[in-house]
Structure formats: C-alpha cells, structure tokens
Fold this protein.
Amino acid sequence: MPQYQSFPDADGASRTLDKVKALKLPVLTDRSFLDIGCNEGFFCGLARHLGAARVVGVDRSALFIERARARFPACEFVQTDWDHLPDGTFDVILLASALHYAHDQAALIARLVERLSDDGTLVLEMGIASAPGSEWVEVDRGIDTRAFPTMKKLHEVLEGYAWKWMGRSVAQAGDPVPRHVVHVSRRRPVAYLLMQPPGYGKSSLASRLFPAADVPLVSGDQSIAAIADGTVRVADHLREAVARDYSPFRIDVVVRGVFEAGAGAALVGVWAGMAGDGDFALDMFVPAEYQAQVEEAFAALGYLPVRLQWDRVGPPLLSQDALEAEADAFYGSLQSPGLPRLGEPGGPPGARGFVDELQVEPGQLLVRGWVVDEGGTLPDALVLRVNGQDHPVDSFERQARPDVERHLGLDHAQVGYCIRLPLPGLRSMADIDNDFALFVPGGASVRLTGRVQGLLSGAAPKA
C-alpha cells in the first residue's frame, strides 16, 4: 500500500506536517481526541504531544493500524470505520480528507457532532467546489467520482450548528478541488445579559431590540415579584433570600441579597425556566461582582452567555444608601443653625441624629446611624428600646460619617455607630413592634429614617 502520511523516515503523498499547521486545532491539554481515518497516526501522535488525556485513532486498514500502534504506543488505535466508532464522547474529532467518501455527508456530520462533548469541536478538512449555487458538484478525481459541496451548500448543511471557516488547507498533487478547514460544534442558545445598574436604560434598549428579532425577553423584576408572591415555586433558600428584603421599589437590594445568600445559581435557574429552549434576553440588574457567576451558571445550563455593556448617558446615579444617608444628614442640619438638638425643632437641648439602618440577624439586632451631642461628639452611651424594654448600650462600634461632618460643619467624622444587640429568640423584623427607639440616657429619642419607619410598620421600605 503506498505511503500516504509523511514522517522523517518515510516520505508520503500528503504534506502532513504542513497540513496539521493549517488545521488550527483547539487546545488539547487534558482533553480527548479522535481521528477518523487516522492512517499511520500522525495526528494522534501530535494530540498526545499536545497533552491530550485520551487519544484514539480509527482506520479500516489493518496495515495502517499496525503501523500506527508501532509509531505511537501511548495512543489507542482501532481497526473500524465511522459507522462503528469507539464508545464515549470526545472533545475534538478530526475528519481529514475523507468526508467526500460518505454516501450522506450531512448525516455523517450530524453523527459526529453527536459524539462531541458539550463544548467539543469537529475539525473538518474537506474539499469545497467552486460554483455560485447551492449544490453538490460531481468531480472526476481520476480514480473515482465524488460529490463536493459548494460554499452555499455547506452553509445549508451546517445551518443548525455553530461553525467557522478557518481557512484553506494544504493542496496535494492531483487535488481536483481546493481544500478548506472548517470547525463545527453544537449550537448553544444565546443568553443576552443586560445586567447594568438601575438608570442605564436596560428596559428601553431591550424592548426596542429583542422583540423585533423575535427573541423572548425575561424581566428580572417580574421574576423577583413572582418568587415573592409564590407564583413561581423555587428552592427554600432562594424564596427566603427574596422575602427577606423584598420591595418592588428596591429590587436591586433584593438581588444583591440573593447573591450574598448564595442563592444566585438558583435564581439563574428561574430565569432559564422563564426563557424557554432558545435564545433569550435577560433584563435584570446584577451587581458587578456577581456578573461572572451569572455567566458561569448560564454556561453550565447549556447557554452561550453574551454580556451587553455600555456607559450610562449623563452623570452617574447616587446609590440608594448614599442618597438616603446624605438626605438624612441634610435634613438633620436644617433643625437648628445653633447647637445640635434632639427630636423635633424646638425640642430640648441635647443630642441629635438618626437611625438609618435596622437589620435582624438570628438572635441579634443590628442598628446603624449617627448621633452627636451638644459638643459635636458621639456620646459614650446610648439606650435601645425594643418592644418596650430598655437596653443600655455602652459598647458599640464607632464609624466615620463624613457626610454628617460636612453637613453639620464638624471638625471630625467619628459620629457614626453600629450596635449589635443580642436578643435571644429574635428571628425577623416581625418580632419587633412599633415601640422601638434609640436615645441618649436622659434625653429624647433619635429620629428614624423613613426606611426604618417603614420596616417597623411592616410597609415597604421607601426608595
């Protein structure tokens, strides 16, 4: 049998070394590789050299298989044809200079793609006939007549796959049609991810772009609302994470809480369930530090995640927390042009400030805000009243509040507090009634922000 592949010790009809350079093979480290029509195993030996964990070559010729085993004993070689391939899937499958031998070339491509791993690649080295239409062109090769597709016909055959023309391959003497290299893989549904912050125009862009392209649009806000009201059944940890902070006016806070609670992958599963089986677009703010996690979760579900990003037109928005803190500090600065006072304008001299965050943790109440006394400093002791019972607090974390420093004209910013009060049996905000206050011993109570008042009254926090 004539020598086909070329080695340093055997010159063959194929320019094998030049051909392999034209194949543009994927990275093979720790991957599996299958060469169909492997001849004497040149490409299998290269795959092992490139770090492939499993390398299999198949050929109908017993002589070629014998030679391949002798040259590359670390590889696996099987005498068979493409109708009886070894078991398992492969990360890379190579079919070089052989597709034209198939009676049904499209069916062979389909069978080989089915044998790919989820992110595998079929590497085709094939002849493409030069003709303007979509047809199979019968070509006389001297030894036989074979059908080769035109480029338009190849587009039709590969319409259901993700594929790319990688360039021309190396010509061999007597080639009747030019050779090309094409990479083929499974087509994944695309998840177009619009995850920019609130105020970036996500909904406006999505509503203009995707319905016109007949791409379903999933609203993240609606998905969160559906979880909150029980319309969508979800895992308990996701439902609890949504319910903990839910407000239709602060979806961004809810989403952040979901990811902080480790329920992000479950939320991605909800979005995928609402999307159907094909391409879709997601309109949902996701904090920047969790966006890669969203992409990974969609990829694990079989999607091709495509993140869309753009700059916001106009000045950036203040975060809701920053806006509330600045507004509260400004309001406090208007109470009196003189010494700080507590409570309503005209109240008794003393301290003043705000409770601007209230959070329940298991068996513990977290309270944050700021207070200044008549001398413009943070008092050494405070009192928390919870459900009518007073709890003296003389040890708490002191925090910087530069916003209060600016608005009150203080010479320092150390007027913020963070109190963690142990309350055995405390489970949720529902365990706290309206008899709640923070005050300086001997003085009136510190003001509560609208958001805290809403939490205590059971209403949605103000946005």
Notes: The chain has three domains: 16-186, 190-308, 320-457.
